[in-house]
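On clarity, I found the account of how folds are encoded harder to follow than it need be. What matters is that the chain and its backbone geometry are given together, residue for residue. For the editor and my fellow referees, an illustration may be useful. For illustration, here is how one protein appears when written out as sequence plus structure tokens:

___
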Amino acid sequence: MDHLPLPLEGITVVAVEQAVSAPFATRQLADLGARVVKVERIDGGDFARGYDTAAGGLASHFVWCNRGKESIALDLKDPRGLAVVRRLVADADVFVQNLAHGAAARLGLDAATLCAAHPRLIAVDISGYGGSGPYADKRAYDMLVQCEAGLVSVTGTPGQPVKAGIPAADIAAAMYAFSGVLAALVRRGTTGRGGPVEVSMLEALAEWMGHPLHHAMHGGEPPARTGLAHAVIAPYDAYPTADGGRVLLSVQNDREWRRLAEQVMGSPELGTDPDFATNAARVANRGRTDELVAEALGVLGADEALALLEKAGIACARLRDLHELADHPQLAARERWRRVGTPVGPLKALLPPITLPGGDEARMGDVPALGQHTGTLLRAVGMTDDEIAALRRDGVAI
């Protein structure tokens, strides 16, 4: 079979983006071969650059979301800076923006305006709550949208709701923007026309809430917050081991319970005990069920407990921290780690989870410094060295 190129080679993306939702979406496009031009503010650039200094002096969010892009720093409030963006967009296949509501329209960079001027362009508007409705002007940050979408109501312990430990609303919007661009490119391939793509953080995360939402609104009670436990299955939780670890296990049916009782707990009689023999009985007696499992695992080391559970055919896992994830044997065995260039030197990064065998590996390009490609991009749109020097002198570009 012929060696296949990356699927988005030859596609150019221009993004006026910040934070996570749009940058994470366009990073997926860059990984698949697209050229992504990132337009940043002249006063510090994407504000995610300043979130922290954990990644060798760089912000961890920025390193995660912005590899493989070209950075141009412009003042879009100056007509000359805005004109550069319009020239870049004229030659682009995709435009993505996640500015505050109304800001893109004031600049003439909203999807409707751009698509009217460039019929083949795919223009993506990412917002917190959508372009209309009573929440359209509301400021939207990830944790706030997690609350509005009900995610926090089903996450945590019975006494304490908590937000997800990752920016779930941003990631949901990013992935729908990414898939929306891919769908629009397929449609353009058959019709010749691009068009607008709209994604809101609330609507993206509300879709991800489908199971608890349908459970609640079609007659059931909202699922209870149960920490690491499962609301309607037992045993399904994390249990401490003798060496200070925590092992998770999930019993999905009564046959598995009988194997757990006999082969791991050493109490085969529990397999047929009416108080535990069925899932309904185990849930009704959840406290005692968990106590019995915890007693059995609590005298074992984590490795020993996992080996016993695996031998018995019980689904199980180790509760890992982030350093343990970075050293995960499965990621190592599948050679998922690469080195990505950054302004502070190479940093370790995961290959994207979309694998396309038989073709080029994902293009994990460098993380750009602010304005690293300004001169090259300005020359590409036809500006002379004198014009570029004037823009820099006047603070329109850096």
Notes: Residues 377 and 383 are 9 Å apart (CA to CA). The first strand starts at residue 12 and ends at 16. The first helix runs from residue 21 to 31.
